[in-house]
Amino acid sequence: MNTNPLVEAMLERKSIRKYGEEMPPDEVIEAVVRAGQQAPFASQLCSLLLSRGKGLPFGAPLLFTVCVDLHRMELVMAKRGWQKVTNDLSMLFFGIQDASLMAENMVIAAESFGMGSCFLGAAPYRADKIAQKYKLPARVFPIVQLSMGYPAENPPPRPRYPLSFTLFEDEYPALSETAIEQAMEQMDEGYLAQNYYSKGKIMIRLDGGREESYTYDNYSWTEHISRKWGQWYRSPAELLRQLALRGFEVQLPTEEEAGLEGE
Ligand SMILES: Cc1cc2nc3c(=O)[nH]c(=O)nc-3n(C[C@H](O)[C@H](O)[C@H](O)COP(=O)(O)O)c2cc1C
User: Fold this and answer.
1) Exposed, middle or buried, 217 (CB in 10 Å: 0-12/13-18/19+)?
2) Average confidence (pLDDT) per 10 residues, the chain, 263 residues
3) Which of 107, 111, 119 to mutate to test the pocket of ligand 1 (most atoms within 8 A of CB)?
4) Is the dihedral angle over the CA atoms 123, 124, 125, 130 positive or is it negative?
5) 88 C-alpha to ligand 1 centroid (Å)
6) Ligand 1 geometric centre to CA of 129 (Å)
7) pTM of the prediction?
8) For labelling, which of 92, 176, 237, 249 has a CA lying 20 to 30 Å from the CA of 116?
9) Which residues' Cβ are closer than 6 Å to ligand 1?
10) Which of 15, 96, 125, 126 is the best mutation target for the ligand 1 pocket, counting ligand atoms within 8 Å of the beta carbon and taking the most?
11) What is the CA(9)–ligand 1 centre distance, in A?
């Protein structure tokens, strides 16, 4: 594999969950945000909220909230005499694409200034609270938050699936038992070797009174992630509620509306 300083920096990156108190200068923040803005976009369907100071997640000096922003798009379209007819689910997908690329550009730019960062994925479920705090207009939906600042920890880069379990050229292969087991082992052995879950005392509890059979000697990533998606967010109701509160219509269309599509 070839590397260069940029790729090496990307391979060394890790989420940072402990920060020094130093506040990054305005010029650095501006550069990070400009690098984010300059990411490829489909429609610039995202905007950023920023908080600085104490009391932010992980004690970071900066917290960005990355939003899908249909409000701003609709203001621009109105100036042109247009009304959006594209359904909100499609707009949401396009917006998430734009927002993700912007956010990751910011992560890499932050690294180049010696800063670290960590995403926080629960924002969509707290959209109403975030909207109150930042006085968000309707049609702006927080997708993810990003803490940022100078690191006060230096963990090792975290494991990933093998490349052969990720990159499928020309055709998606039948994934063999061996391939699955090897990929799981790479993740689990990697996290165990770093004492990731035991150090952080992280173990997702089993619902429904099921008895715990894991210890920190064998609890690792594939069990952790399986417990998340095997127990959490069964119903889409809360997310749909949050979207509705923010003025996003993502329900199935009525038969009448669906009929209009064919015209
Ligand atoms: C969309 C997204 C949401 C995340 N949410 C959280 C979070 O709520 N809390 C947290 O500690 N880490 C969160 N992370 C960080 C991941 O746990 C981390 O990226 C992953 O474990 C891989 O580790 P690494 O970034 O150090 O390589 C999130 C990452 C992403 C991309």
Assistant:
1) exposed
2) 96 98 98 98 98 97 98 98 96 98 98 98 98 98 98 98 98 98 98 97 95 97 98 96 97 75 52
3) 119
4) positive
5) 27
6) 21
7) 0.95
8) 92
9) 14-15, 17, 118-122, 144, 158
10) 15
11) 18
Residues facing 149 on adjacent strands:
116
Cβ–Cβ < 8 Å for 98, 66: no
Of 81, 64, 83, nearest to 139 by C-alpha is 83
Name residue 64's beta-bridge partners.
50, 146
C-alpha dist (Å) from residue 169 to 23, 163, 164, 176: 45, 11, 10, 16
Q: How many helices (H) and strands (E) does the chain have?
A: 10, 4
Q: How far is the CA of 185 from the centre of ligand 1 (A)?
A: 20
Instruction: Measure Cα distances from 24 to 2, 30, 35, 59, 84 in Å.
Output: 33, 10, 16, 14, 39
Q: Give burial (CB, 10 Å; 0-12/13-18/19+) of 196.
A: buried
Ligand 1 atom 1, closest CA: 121
H/E run at residue 67: strand 62-69
pLDDT of residue 260: 65
Half-sphere exposure of 121 (CA within 13 A, CB side): 2
